[in-house]
């Protein structure tokens, strides 16, 4: 059955926070500049991810930055 609706497509920038041993999404933004500023404001380990959704399902994720990583000991 044809409903006349096209596939829903949207993109967003997500902030994922490492909690223990698991990554959890903390927030999402339509604007990269806002998401980047928020991500760099965290004091814990975070990832800034560009996510693409189609019909409500995530079809692609790209890690743009990972901040707050512990330094390697020499």
Q: What is the percentage of strand-forming residues? A: over 45%
Distance between the termini: 63 Å
| Class based on secondary structure composition and strand pairing | mainly beta
- Domains, number: 1
Strand order of the main beta sheet, please? Answer: 2-1-3-4
Main β sheet profile? 4 strands, antiparallel
Total DSSP E strands? 4
Helix content: 10-25%
Uncertain segments are: 1-5
- Count of individual helical segments: 1
SSE order, one letter for each helix or strand: EEHEE
Rg measurement, Å? 15 Å
Indicate the mean pLDDT. Answer: 87
Overall shape: globular
How would you explain this protein's 3D organization?
With 74 residues, the chain is mostly beta strands. The protein has one domain. It contains one helix and four strands, in the order ββαββ. The protein has one helix at 32-41, and strands spanning 9-19, 22-29, 46-54, 57-67. It has a four-stranded antiparallel β-sheet with strand order 2-1-3-4, with helices on one face. Strand 3 and strand 4 form a beta hairpin. The protein starts with 8 loop residues before the first strand and ends in a 7-residue tail after the last strand.
List descriptors.
74 residues; mainly beta; four-stranded antiparallel sheet
Strand and helix map with partners:
Blueprint: E1 9-19, E2 22-29, H1 32-41, E3 46-54, E4 57-67
């Amino acid at each position: 059955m044809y409903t006349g609706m096209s596939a829903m497509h949207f993109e967003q920038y997500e902030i994922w926070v490492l909690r223990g041993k698991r990554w959890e999404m903390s927030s999402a933004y339509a604007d990269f500049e806002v998401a980047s500023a928020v991500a760099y404001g965290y004091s814990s380990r975070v990832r800034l991810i560009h996510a693409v959704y189609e019909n409500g399902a995530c079809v692609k994720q790209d890690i743009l930055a990972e901040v707050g990583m512990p330094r390697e000991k020499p």
